[in-house]
Fold this sequence. Notes:
Radius of gyration: 14 Å
Strand order of the largest sheet: 2-1-6-5-4-3
Largest sheet: 6 strands, mixed
Amino acid sequence: MAEPAEAVRRYHDAINRLDYQALDDFFAQDAVYVSNGIGTVSGKEAILASFRAYFAEYPDQVAVDDLIENISAVEARSVWRLAATSARTGQPLIRSGEEIVRLDAEGRIERVYVRDL
Length: 117
């Protein structure tokens, strides 16, 4: 299994490239994604559908990691910031936050917890 911080780097790269096949490969079937922005999303298919809906709304998102670190043998923490523009309204979106990603025994993402800073 890859170290968690390296897995998060590759996961974020796939997000930035909007590589949905790679994202599909990252998540465990029963993964859970928790964010104060969208609430709790359970299951890989629902998580990927949420990503698709978000990037349909914010297709120009640019996200940068200021920090990615291992916090345990199965978890990594990232501190990030992003800027995007709503395709629907033209309004800018500026966010920064913290993300904790937990990997399962196969190295797939089983839980993502996001909170805005």
